[in-house]
Each structure stands twice: as C-alpha cells, then as structure tokens.
Amino acid sequence: MSTATALRWGAFRSIARALRAVTRPGSPGMGARLSSLPRLVRATARGEYAGTSLGRLALLVGAVAYVVSPIDLAPEALLGLFGLADDAVVVSWIATTVVNETEVFLAWEEQRRRTVPGDVVG
Question: Measured at the alpha carbon of residue 119, what is the angle toward residues 46 and 117, in degrees to the nearest 5?
Fold first, then answer.
C-alpha cells in the first residue's frame, strides 16, 4: 500500500470515528458542537476553561484556512491523488479535533451548570 493510500484510509477512519461519536445516542449533534465553538473560544481566552489552549484553537483555524485556500503544499494538478491526501489528512484532523474538543467542553459546561446553580454559561 502506498503512503498516499495509507494516509487517505487513515483520514477516512478518523472521520468515521468522529461521525460515530457525533451520532452516538445521547451525544450532542454536530449543530450543538459547532455552536459551542464560540463559547469554547471565549471560555479558553478568559482562562475559565483549561481543557484546550488558544494555540490549539489557532491551529484549528489555520487548518480550516489551509483546506479552503487555493494554495496547496501538494497540488493535485501536479501530484494527482497524493495531492488530495494532504487535504484528506487535514480534514480528518479538523473533524476529529472538533468532535473531541467539543465533547470535553460540553461535558465541562454541563458539569459547571450542575455545580454552580443559577450561573449563566457563555
């Protein structure tokens, strides 16, 4: 198996695991996860939430910018399928990171709501 093929399959497996986590019964859906991202950034910036760092969130923004940017480190036009592999790896990292970060953050918010009655999160 070529490196590009292994990277693509690894990316697909990561995305599949992220989708399974999102669709698990009782788990927040993707809409709830995406809508929690601004709260996650605010809580991290304020120092209230220590589950991630601003650096990791900046990497996430940079990864999204890389995927949507027309500039590519491994251009598809020159490298064919290998040029798609780098994008697939980045997309799988984005999906996995969003699912994992929001999973922990939403649990933290819920725990905070239960332990601090009347406190408004956000």
Answer: 140
Pull the structure tokens for residue 66: 């890389």
Q: How many helices (H) and strands (E) does the chain have?
A: 5, 0
Q: Kindly list the distances between the CA atom of residue 1 and the CA atoms of 18, 36, 41, in Å, as whole numbers in the listed order.
A: 24, 39, 40
Residue entry with tokens 């927040």: 28
Residues in the chain: 122
- pLDDT above 80: residue 107: yes
pLDDT in tens, 8-31: 566 667 777 777 776 677 778 888
Rounded Cα distance between 59 and 115, Å, is 32
Q: Say how far apart CA 57 and CA 74 lie, in whole Å.
A: 24
Widest CA span of the chain, in angstroms? 58
Q: Cβ distance 92 to 14 under 8 Å?
A: yes
